[in-house]
Amino acid sequence: MLQKILLLPLLMLILSGYTWHKAVTAEPITQKGATINWISIEEAAEKIKKQPRKVVVDVYTDWCGWCKKMDKSTFTDPAVVAYINKNYYAVKLDAEGKKPITLNGHTYTFKEQYRAHELAVALLQGQMSYPTTVYLDEKFNMLTPVPGYLDANTFHQILTYFGDNHHKSKTWEEYTKK
């Protein structure tokens, strides 16, 4: 009987240690495996009428290595994914895509002389550099294009600068000094 009484606290101690170890070593709860809800620019234009949000456009090409790196690292970062899905409509635009795109009654097409889609040329203001991330406000007005590869931390900082409307009261330099 005495052995059973002594065994019970020992068993409880072992179990509580196992539970504590699992709690301490468990991965933090994140949106691992979550993905950005990419939509077409036409879908974003329609959605913005009903539920205004800013738009982030990833302008890419199939041959662009840095574009692929952003897809694999930046656009899979849990903080980036969560912030974009909550605050933006996310659009991927193939700068060399052949499909016509109609926005606000104007149809944009692929132009052989530019070897690029007209919409990409317009969004990038003729500065054809890939990848480029373009930020649009809730009325589909251009905020700014940001050319080049961006790691997850830098990209998240830019997302919040526009997403939280800091751009309305601070310059980028003031914002990044925080």
> Could you tell me how far the N terminus lies from the C terminus, measured between alpha carbons in angstroms?
66 Å
Q: What is the averaged pLDDT score? A: 85
How many β-strand stretches?
A: 9
Structural class: alpha/beta
Largest sheet: 5 strands, mixed
Question: Beta fraction of the residues?
Answer: 15-25%
Give the count of helical stretches: 7
3D shape:
globular
Output the radius of gyration: 24 Å
List the helices and strands in order: HEHEHHEEEEEHEEHH
Order of strands in the sheet with most strands: 1-3-2-8-9
Uncertain residue ranges: 1-30
Helix content: 40-55%
Please give the structural blueprint.
Elements: H1 2-25, E1 38-39, H2 41-50, E2 54-60, H3 65-72, H4 78-87, E3 88-94, E4 101-103, E5 106-108, E6 110-111, E7 116-117, H5 118-123, E8 132-136, E9 142-147, H6 152-163, H7 172-177
Parallel strand pairs: 1-3, 2-3
Antiparallel strand pairs: 2-8, 4-5, 6-7, 8-9
Helix pairs in contact: 4-6
Write up what this structure looks like.
With 178 residues, this protein is α/β, with parallel strands linked by helices. It has helices spanning 2-25, 41-50, 65-72, 78-87, 118-123, 152-163, 172-177; strands at 38-39, 54-60, 88-94, 101-103, 106-108, 110-111, 116-117, 132-136, 142-147. The strands form three sheets. Strands 1-3-2-8-9 form a five-stranded mixed sheet. Strands 4-5 form a two-stranded antiparallel ribbon. The model is unreliable at 1-30 (pLDDT under 50).
Entry keywords:
single chain; 178 residues; alpha/beta; five-stranded mixed beta sheet; two-stranded antiparallel sheet; 7 helices; 9 strands; 43% helix; globular; disordered N terminus
